[in-house]
Amino acid sequence: MPQSSLPLPPGSFGLPVIGESVSYLHSPAIFMEKRQKQYGNIFKTHLFGFPTIVLIGAGAARFLFANEGQKFEMTNTPSFERLLGINSIGVVTGAAHQTLRKYLYQAFAPRALADYATTMQNITHRYLKRWEKMETLTWYPELKKYTLDIACQLFIGVATESEEALEKIYETWSDGLLSIPVRFPGNKFDKSIHAREELLAHFDKLIDQRLQHPAENQDVLTILLQAQDEEGKHLSREEVKDNLLGMLVAGHETLTSALTSLCLLLAQHPDVLVKAHVEQEQFKFSEPITQEDLKQMTYLEQVMKEVLRMAPPVVRSGLRKVLEPCEFAGYKIPQGWGVFYQIQETHQDQTIYSHPEKFDPNRFNTEKVEDKQKPFAHIPFGGGIRECLGKEFAKLEIKLFAALLIREYEWELAPRQNLERIVLPFSRPHDGLKVKFRKRGKLV
Ligand code: HEM
């Protein structure tokens, strides 16, 4: 059938101008669930000013990844673009995106990761001791500090502990990402733009210092300043700064979410925690933990995969614009519309995952490997040419954190807290996960 005579996917555009954005923002999970039940795995809606098609499932993700850059292209709201910067990898498209990715990848290649592991472990030990002293804590904000500390140390060689001001400026900047993009003096968006300028000025100083005195330890900033293409061309200063900023957000909010979910799910599933602890007992004398050790922790790997399946930090992709008309599953996808693929719902597919609502790391053991039934069934990091650039960095940090935590500590959920999951901008429990925390065996 010619594309033009295919129907549009089912669904509704909602109200004029605002479309269905309000109900989506009110509860993205319920919004998706209701429409998926009503219309199936492909439907149309109207979000953030665009007629939009929502795609759910491994097949749909595969279709989008295969056509990324040809039929689809990343697009951002004007506020996002203003705050991230025009040189950011999240904004740049086409051939320029691919070139930029090659440069940035140099900071996340295996050799670079091996250098980061020791710093990650030192910072982890420091925080575990801090939480032990605190005895009761709300973990989400603590984990946010922890992941920001790691990101600042490894990306720009700065300890946020000694630079508390930096943490505050960063928070103001990131608050603006979900604000209304109208600027007037003193509003959230305006403050966020100022914070961006302050952060970039800070990066400028760091770059000047680095150019005069190269750092002893390789961090992301050093690697980006030295990165070259085949012709020996370097990234411009503006490219380095915009991408450092983007990586701070991409690299620490997502990890905070993943680690919080890991701690919550392990507290709710003591049987899994016991098994993970037994595995760690075999390695407890090996420190610092090497990449080789991590490879052998197969149960920990399964736990991490299951956490990222059940509670993916990013629940849906960034918005893509349709560059040329195409079709999927018997429906037309018109040029100029927006398209999203859904990570959360794809991970709940009953035809792939048995009892998908259950937390069960065994589904990824070598006999079952449920996710291998279809390509792109497990997509916490997206896929294709825009797959998460920090995927291996993130996996390293999650596993090191989990191994050190499980070896020596235990925690229990404090009573009377709301654990309901909020998914925007990143997945987290409503009250931030309140726990009692102590060294193993120290019963209170
Ligand atoms: C558990 C942690 C993380 C998760 C779940 C995650 C998830 C994702 C997802 C789903 C995408 C693709 C979005 C799309 O298709 O629209 C993405 C892209 C990206 N991520 Fe991550 N991420 C994580 C950690 C990190 C870290 C540590 C970094 C490192 C700085 C990072 C840097 C990036 C970058 C630069 C992109 C854009 C890639 C491109 O457009 O070419 N992420 N991430």
From TrEMBL:
Listed GO biological process terms: sterol metabolic process
Coiled coil: none
Gene Ontology molecular-function annotations: heme binding; iron ion binding; monooxygenase activity; oxidoreductase activity, acting on paired donors, with incorporation or reduction of molecular oxygen
Binding site for heme: 388
UniProt-listed SUPFAM superfamilies: Cytochrome P450
Cofactor annotation: heme
Domain of life: Bacteria
One Pfam family here: p450
Alphabetical UniProt keywords: Heme, Iron, Metal-binding, Monooxygenase, Oxidoreductase
Family: Belongs to the cytochrome P450 family.
Descriptive protein name: Cytochrome P450
Organism: Dulcicalothrix desertica PCC 7102
